[in-house]
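Researcher: I've been going back and forth with a colleague about how DUF899 domain-containing protein might be arranged in three dimensions. Neither of us has a model we trust, so I'd like an independent prediction. The organism is Paroceanicella profunda, in case that matters for your notes. Sequence below.
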Amino acid sequence: MTRISTREDWLVARKALLAGEKALTRQRDALAAERRALPRVRIAKPYRFETRAGVTDLAGLFAGRSQLMVCHFMLAPGWEAGCTGCSFLADHFDAMLPHLQAHDVSLTAVSSAPLAEIEAYRARMGWAFPWASSAGSDFNRDFGVSFTEEELASGTVDYNFRATPRETAGPEMPGLSAFERAEDGSVLHSYSSYARGSEELVGTYMMLDLAPKGRNETAGMDWVRRHDEYAQGPAAACCHGG
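Model: Here is an independent structure prediction for DUF899 domain-containing protein. You can compare it with whatever you and your colleague have in mind.
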């Protein structure tokens, strides 16, 4: 229930909340420093990707920059559309690109679907950010976002650094990984995050968290649709391929 107060009482409550907000900001800064200080893992496997510009390896996805962010986008072979939640996140990417690139960071999505299916969905969504196909590569499996039917049938899969039950996992799962180019040109893995780990990248959610009614959802992302589907009926399940 909405509580109505005087301006004076509101200001007291607002200043109390500000103290918590400042503490959270300092905690986020400290966590970011710990994240940057994580050890690196040298990538030895020669992953293969297909892009608009042709076939390349992981180093090629850096596009000449020293840092690379990879969105593990849930779009599997034969899916009619990408994951609703991944699409919600990806709607924010194009506006990021010039700022990230000016700061020596490349951003690309990677999906297991073939490039033709990626490009068809990209055209539907109107996106311009780089997007590579990892079809025929171990990349998705090695980074814990693609699982076989046999693995799922076992009851649990290793997702988000823990055993995840089949009921909350599927053949494709979302994630974000960060890489760095070493001085010798090799690729180093610095960070990966899964599940809600990339939520702060969803600017719409961050704005809703400031709005009077917040996210106003009864279950995670139950209101989210692909951006061309809001005029249609009820939202589909968030993370599957339509």
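Researcher: What would you highlight for our discussion?
Model: I'd start with this: Residues 94 and 129 are 6 Å apart (CA to CA). After that, consider the following. The domain at 38-198 is CATH 3.40.30.10 (Glutaredoxin).
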